[in-house]
Each structure stands twice: as C-alpha cells, then as structure tokens.
Amino acid sequence: MNTKAYAAFNDADPLGPHTIKRRHIHANDVAIDIEYCGVCHSDIHTAKGDWGRPNYPVVPGHEIIGRVKEVGADVTKFKVGDLVGVGCMVESCKECDPCNHGIEQYCENGFTGTYNSKNSKHGGITYGGYSDYIVVEEDFVLNVPENIDVKAAAPLLCAGITTWSPLRHWNVKAGDKVGVIGLGGLGHMGVKFAKAMGAHVVMITTSASKGEDAKQLGADEVLISTDSDQLKAHKNSFDFLLNTIPVKHDVNPYLNLLKLDKTMCLVGAIEPLEAVDGGNLIMKRKNLAGSLIGGIKETQEMLDFCGEHNIVSDIEMIDIQNINTAYERMMKSDVKYRFVIDIKSLNNA
Amino acid sequence: MNTKAYAAFNDADPLGPHTIKRRHIHANDVAIDIEYCGVCHSDIHTAKGDWGRPNYPVVPGHEIIGRVKEVGADVTKFKVGDLVGVGCMVESCKECDPCNHGIEQYCENGFTGTYNSKNSKHGGITYGGYSDYIVVEEDFVLNVPENIDVKAAAPLLCAGITTWSPLRHWNVKAGDKVGVIGLGGLGHMGVKFAKAMGAHVVMITTSASKGEDAKQLGADEVLISTDSDQLKAHKNSFDFLLNTIPVKHDVNPYLNLLKLDKTMCLVGAIEPLEAVDGGNLIMKRKNLAGSLIGGIKETQEMLDFCGEHNIVSDIEMIDIQNINTAYERMMKSDVKYRFVIDIKSLNNA
C-alpha cells in the first residue's frame, strides 16, 4: 500500500504530490495516521538544498501529530487510537553515553532525522510528516495529551522542545528574570514556557509591535534592543537569555544584559556570529552556549507540562496545496507563529 | 617617610625612579616590606596607556611578595615578620553579593586595583609593587607558605590565580582531559595546576618547541593546533579548555575539541574574537566562557595548595633597573615564563 505525500524534487521547483511505498511494520514499530504537521524553517532549508544537496525527493515535516493505526508485536507503550507525536528524530544508537542519558539529540553515532536521513536499520531514506502515514520505532513516539488543541500541538515537537530543553537545562525557575530574544516560531514558545515556569519574562526585540504581541503571549516586559537607554537599564540583570535569532548577528549587546555567571543560549543561529568580545565574557564570568532540540524523555515531560498548563503554539492552518505559499511567507517572517498543515487536505487531489 | 619606587611618567618614555610618600597605617592595615614583584602584561598596557590614559605617574606591579613590617591596631590575621602576598586587588565594597560570596573580583561596585586605581577609602591613587613598601587592608593580604621558593611565588598572585580560579570553578578533577591553549605566563601555570589536580593535560600550541617545554612543565601530551589531523584526532574529547591566548583569534577549532556540555574558558583575550560559529555551540551544547583573576578566599586556597604541592612559577629574576628591557622582551614573548623584580635592587641607586 502507498502513502500520499508532498515532496521537493529538486532545489528550484515548488513542492508537489508524491507517492511513497509504506514501510514494513517491525516488532517495535508504531504506524501512525498523520493528522497535522507543523512547518519548520528546517523544512525549507532542506527542500531547497541550503544545507547541501538532499536525497530528493524530500518529504519534509518533523512536527507530526496523529493517531496510532497499528502496532508491532512487541510494542508496549502504545495502542491503536492513541494520540501521538513524532519530532525531529526517529532513531539513535541507544548505546552511547548521551543516548543512555536520554539526550539522543547528541547521539555520538548521529541520530536518524525524521526526513532526508539514511535509515540505518531499515534501509532507504526517511520521509517526514507532509504525508498521511508514518512508521516509527515506539521509543521515538510521544504521547500527546488529549486535552490540548491537537492541531496547535504539532509545533511543540520541534519549536516547543527546542526552547523547553535549554530553559530546563539551565534551571530556569520561578522568579528568574528571563529574556527571550526574537519573536518567531521558537521565540513565542520560549515566552509561553518561561512564563509558565514562573519566570519574569522580558521579550527582547527590535520591533515595538512584536513587543506588544509578546505581551499577549505572556511576556511581562519588553526591551527594544535598538534603544541604548533600555539596554543600559537592563545591564547585568538577566538570569538567562534564550536567543532565538536564526541568522548572523551581534551577540555583545545581549551578553551585556546577563548577570554574573549566567548564560545566553543560542537555539537559532547555526552560522558564524559577529565577533564576540572576550572581555564581555571575562569581566563577569559569563557563558555563551548553544542547545539542539531536546531528548525523547524531556520531550515527553514538555508535552505532559503542556497538558497540565494548557500550552500550545499559536498557529495558522493551511492545506497542503498551499505549502509553497507558506514557504514564501515564512521567508518573509510573515506567520504568527507556525503554519500547520491539515493532512486531510492530501485527499483533495 | 618615603617609599622608593619605579614609575611610568607618560606613555612614551621608559620607567624610572620615583619617590612616594608612605600612606598612614589604619587600624585594619598591614604594612609590607616588598621583597619581590612579578611583571605582568597588564603592567605594560597600563604604563603605556593602552587601556586609556592612566593616572601618571603609575607605579605598576600586582604580584607582590614581602614580609609584614607593621600592623594596625585591629589586625588579627597577620603579625610582624609574616611572609605575605598581595595580588590585583586591595579593596572592594564588601557589601554586594559577589563580595559576600568571596568573589571580590566581580564586586558590583568595582574593586580597587593594586595600582592606578582611585582609593575610595583613603583618597589618592594606588601604587603597586615596583616599590619597597606597600600598605594594604588585611582582608586583601594573603599568607604565603614559607616552604616554597619565595621569589618564584610572586606570579602566583596574578598569573597563578587567573588560571587556578577557572580550573576550580569548572570543577577540573583527576582523570579529566584538560587542554591549556597557549604557553606563556598564564599557560605555564595552567599546565602545572591542572597536572597537580590529577588531570590528563594537553598543551595546545602552534609551536613544537613550546610543546616540548610544556612537557617539561608536566603536560602529558601536545596538540599542535595548526595540524588538522591532530585537531581531528582530538575532536569532541576535552573536558575543559583553558584558553590563555591574549589576542584576537579564531576560537572555532578549539570549540571543536570540547566534549558535549563542556566549557572553554577565556582568561587572556579581552578584545573581540573572530566570528564564533553558532552551530559549533549548538550541536553539542558547548559553552564559551570567561573568567577574571580570582577572589581572596580562593587565592589563599591556591597558595596553600602550592605549599602542599611545591608549585611555583618558572621565573627570570631581574633588577628594577632592567625593567624597560624586560618590557621589550615580554612584548616579543621572550621570557620563560615570568620576570620577577628583586626589590633589593631599588637600593642600587
């Protein structure tokens, strides 16, 4: 039997319909009927070959929500009908130190991405969530709380965990002054999580209107980062900074905002930053760090927390036929804050 | 009564003889007959006005060893004849959070430097260790173990504590693989301390001959940082990197060497670094940090450790009359590894 999907076939043309042969369900596998899939900037970069030539055709999508359709003989954690999610990873070695510590995103042998990755166990290339069906090992399938808005839960699987993981790793707690730099798919989740953790949340942005938007999402305060008086007023005052800016930028004005011994964590900019001032780190023993998505265990903790606190993403629903328009709008940062594909639309041939 | 000293009188001319009126000994003060003073790169930068115009005449020197000559009425920690040291700080507010936690180098109100600083309590400008006498509050005076080579202990007060503090702060322990980047006044102390802490010490240098020198100092291994095969062989393997390079440089090849979750700490480069690759931090949750000298409590711990492990600096003794030649040689990195002034030479008028 085949799976309906949308794929990129080269780096220039838009995405279009595609058919994939369904993969066999092994003993530890869970087969999922996909209902919703969030659209991440990584999807665009991969589809367009920005990160090197991918294995075309590419079926992107790693913010997957669906219901269990079938389980392999040895599956114990899921049953048919369960509401489940799949994020950026579908396999890892399970033998290295990071895997043994539940941080599979740092697997020493390299995790298998949900799409455009070589499937070391089952052969072939992985295909993602712009599709009506996926088969994934149960260890990489998440339980999604039934009480939250299911379609708006999709972006939790990447944008959510990418911001949750560093907030937890650097022990953000009630009363901490936390700055979220940049308001997009990642930043808006950072604001919601930090607020729900009890922090005093400051949206740090170049845009006054984004500042107002952030207040709607729960931010307590806004710092306009182009205003030197505001930067001065907040100098050496933050317990943690979550930097979601996805492009090259000057981190020095932000490092100035940190308290002694505190950390700014990058989650967006994987390219070279502008020159970091060594003195800015030395004079108050500050840290500049980075963090990559999150492990399966902490992804489940995040989803459970979202169930308890009724947290989901702010989304704009689209049909799969509008994916190329969505890509164009995302490249202009024109979305609040994540597009989610209604996978039912795959049937509107 | 007056104190003999050597001072810089402007940014162009060499240092020369100077006379200072001795400051009054207050109840908590310790008066010290200086015997030895190490020569730090900061002395040159300050004397020459590289960091802004100083308060000429400047008497540099913040690696001071001497014996207590006199104590104020309320002094309890020291008695006449004690072997003592003074480092980079002679006062701090003693009220802020960092002061209360024994990290006066991060005093929120700014510590008073041993030279060229406004003396907030007693007025005037502070004068450093290129001199036969100094008066310092007892809280900023250190006990120096009598069993170590006294003259070679002087550089412990700055080069020593600057490397000791980050090694302790980031919990370097027996069995850790620690890289010391750069072999100079700071780097050679980093090698000695990390080795004495039980670490597997790798000297990271561009120079094969410095590598050999580092082995003499206790390094277990040498990594030539211009050799891409060696960099590759050590990728993701270090528990801590102590980066003592004092000038702008590319930190990315070094960040590549760190294990997941580990830190490279800058202690030398207070200027802008070359562009840091964000991905290099994100992909394995690495940290780039900085550290400034060390607090009084940990300086005492370091000196006690040096007494127990018989650790001192490798030095070249000079008479004060040769200070300008020493500066010239330091600017060419021509010293193994610290000049120390024999203060008796001040009498050779």
TrEMBL record, chains A, B:
What Gene3D superfamilies is this protein classified in? Answer: Medium-chain alcohol dehydrogenases, catalytic domain, NAD(P)-binding Rossmann-like Domain
Q: Has the keyword Oxidoreductase been applied to this entry?
A: yes
State if Kinase is listed as a keyword: no
Record's protein name: NAD(P)-dependent alcohol dehydrogenase
User: Which cofactor(s) does the record list?
Assistant: Zn(2+)
Q: Which InterPro entries match?
A: ADH-like_C, ADH-like_N, ADH_Zn_CS, CAD-like, ER, GroES-like_sf, NAD(P)-bd_dom_sf
Upper lineage = Bacteria, Pseudomonadati, Bacteroidota, Flavobacteriia, Flavobacteriales
Q: Which domain of life is it from?
A: Bacteria
Cite a single GO MF annotation.
alcohol dehydrogenase (NADP+) activity
Q: Which residue numbers delimit the Enoyl reductase (ER) domain?
A: 10-341
Task: Give the family this protein belongs to, as stated in its UniProt record.
Answer: Belongs to the zinc-containing alcohol dehydrogenase family.
Which keywords appear in this protein's UniProt record, sorted alphabetically? Metal-binding, Oxidoreductase, Zinc
